[in-house]
Amino acid sequence: MTAHPHSLELFRRDRVWPFLMPPEPRVDVSHQVILYVEGLNLSFDGFKALNDLNLYVNDGELRCLIGANGAGKTTLMDVITGKTTPDSGTVHFGQSIDLLHHDEARIAQLGIGRKFQKPTVFEAQTVADNLELALKTNKGILPTLFSQLSSEQEDRIHSVLHTIGLVQQKRLLAGNLSHGQKQWLEIGMLLVSEPRLLLIDEPVAGMTPEETERTAELLTSLAGKHTVIVVEHDMEFVRSIARTVSVLHQGSVLAEGTMDQVQNHPDVIEVYLGEDA
Ligand SMILES: Nc1ncnc2c1ncn2[C@@H]1O[C@H](COP(=O)(O)OP(=O)(O)OP(=O)(O)O)[C@@H](O)[C@H]1O
């Protein structure tokens, strides 16, 4: 008796059916904290890039990380996103997800999106196609523009275009966008997969004052639904968006609070802002 074609399909070795895949763990934010970083240490050839670093970020918060060059901001982002393994310490996403047990790709799937300083959009594709490709890539499907989007996915792309203020530009090639618009598009490319936590590195570097202002509006509008951590050197920008600022110095959190509180903190005046004064 020949097997029914559907049963052959069912026994293909290379298929994993959705009901057999491990369920996507939910991020447990029952204690309002979405990110716990505790006792992180990391040395590079004896130099302590992270030094017993502790950081707690609440769900829905917009947190700014500031600190002089070499303070450890990028290294911290690298550890949270699985790019670098610390020597010791723990990193938890919500109450129960131990991020140090997952690799970079899995951490992205779990809902942590990272945007590097330089935009890396596909310049030869339209704005809408960039979002579509990002959505498919994030879902682990071989990215192609030929497979159809579901209506839910189309709605999501439209809503992201709206959020990033590029509805009018959706048919433009990304290469023709301004620097600021490319940065927003790249934020949109993260948003299509609805991340819980967004890590954004120097979003306003190289932007015009108008673009900087719109970026402030965009990032503040994302907080609440998402948790946003912004690394930024532009203090005026930080002041315009941040409720809580964490100051990193020599691999540790030196001070935390509102911009006014940290600027008036004696340790900060001494080691960081004092240098500019
Ligand atoms: N892979 C590495 N190997 C050796 N040293 C490293 C490595 N990565 C970072 N470092 C060092 O660790 C320190 C912290 O760097 P990090 O990039 O985290 O600082 P940062 O706060 O992000 O600075 P910036 O504002 O300049 O981006 C620096 O002195 C850097 O040279």
Automatic annotation (TrEMBL):
Location of the ABC transporter domain: 35-275
Coiled coil: none
Pfam annotation, one family: BCA_ABC_TP_C
Keywords: ATP-binding, Nucleotide-binding, Transport
Keyword Nucleotide-binding: yes
GO CC annotations on file: plasma membrane
Entry GO MF terms: ATP binding; ATP hydrolysis activity
NCBIfam families: urea_trans_UrtD
Name of the featured protein: ABC transporter ATP-binding protein
Source organism of this protein record: Saccharospirillum salsuginis
